[in-house]
UniProtKB/TrEMBL annotation:
Gene field: phnC
UniProt keyword terms in alphabetical order: ATP-binding, Cell membrane, Membrane, Nucleotide-binding, Translocase, Transport
Top-level division of the source organism's lineage: Bacteria
GO molecular function: ABC-type phosphonate transporter activity; ATP binding; ATP hydrolysis activity
Protein name: Phosphonate ABC transporter ATP-binding protein
């Protein structure tokens, strides 16, 4: 079953920058998909459209669906968008948590969309909700930090707390926008493992934008690559080759390419072309 459908999505920012050009992709429920591309290729913009945080260019053919509901159509957010956002956990590169609150309270904010506003405002979380939040923290390996202020966590721990919050939220889909961009390799690995774990064990669909191609290959069976606002590749991550990545990243490619990426692999099954086939469309 398809979880995310994007069709004919174009985005032109004020000032005339065309960040996305007629992008169409779809992601099936339970997939873990990497979104890669050079800086400025449109990864964040695409994620923000799926999350309903940005409106596309006005165009009747444009639609963004999550589950079986429209987040936006024709460049306008739908009345459902707000409701749909409850099913989406969004994790950014940083600033995911409220620094002055405890880690546990941050994780508990995941339930805010589902409890009476007054309880949320007063921070009156039930014992069961706290247990669920503690279990989520344990699953991402940072239960011992529950009482600490969020500001005292390392970057990687903060990202894992944000993943725990998405779990408590009951998110069906997690959109992670460069969650490991500023982390050391050990922390990055733990964050990717936490995302992978909720994907495998809870069936949560994960779309994660990454600068580090090696993590896409290691954790995500499928990769979508953007180049200058267009889909340049959509296929198995193992089909990514040095040649393609060099072309995709230009001058920055040497830092990004994994040593174990084949110099010249068999041609990807779906790939390296402006018009791309979409799995599950
Ligand atoms: N609010 C905005 N106003 C104007 N231009 C924007 C805005 N947001 C993004 N852009 C431009 O749109 C293009 C795509 O940006 P986006 O952030 O989606 O790229 P990205 O692939 O996520 O890049 P990075 O990897 O550096 O985060 C860039 O040229 C960027 O400068």
């Amino acid at each position: 079953m398809t979880t995310v459908v994007v069709e004919g999505l174009s985005k032109t920012f004020r000032g005339g920058k065309r960040a996305l050009k007629n992008v169409s992709v779809s992601v099936d429920r339970g997939e873990m998909v990497a979104l890669i591309g050079a800086s400025g290729s449109g990864k964040s913009t695409l994620i923000r459209h799926v999350a309903g945080l940005v409106q596309a260019d006005r165009n009747d053919g444009c639609k963004v669906m999550v589950g079986d509901r429209f987040v936006q159509t024709g460049g306008r957010l739908t009345a459902d968008a707000r409701d749909i956002r409850r099913d989406i956990g969004v994790i950014f590169q940083q600033f995911n948590l409220v620094n002055r609150l405890s880690v546990l309270t941050n994780v508990l904010t995941g339930v805010l969309g589902r409890i009476p506003a007054i309880r949320g405002t007063l921070g009156l979380f039930s014992r069961d909700e706290k247990i669920v939040a503690m279990q989520a923290l344990a699953r991402v390996g940072i239960a011992e930090t529950a009482r600490q202020r969020a500001s005292t966590l390392s970057g990687g721990q903060q990202q894992r707390a944000a993943i725990a919050r998405a779990m408590v939220q009951g998110a069906q889909i997690v959109l992670a926008d460069e969650p490991i961009a500023s982390l050391d390799p050990a922390s990055a690995k733990r964050v990717m493992e936490a995302l992978s774990e909720i994907n495998r064990n809870d069936g949560i669909t994960v779309i994660v934008s990454l600068h580090q191609v090696e993590y896409a290959r290691r954790y995500c069976p499928r990769t979508i690559a953007l180049r200058d606002g267009e889909v340049a590749f959509d296929g198995p991550s193992e089909a990514l080759t040095h040649d393609f990545l060099r072309e995709l990243y230009g001058d920055a490619s040497e830092e990004l390419v994994l040593p174990d990426v084949p110099e010249r692999a068999p041609r990807p099954q779906i790939a390296l072309q402006p018009a791309v086939a979409f799995a599950g469309a």
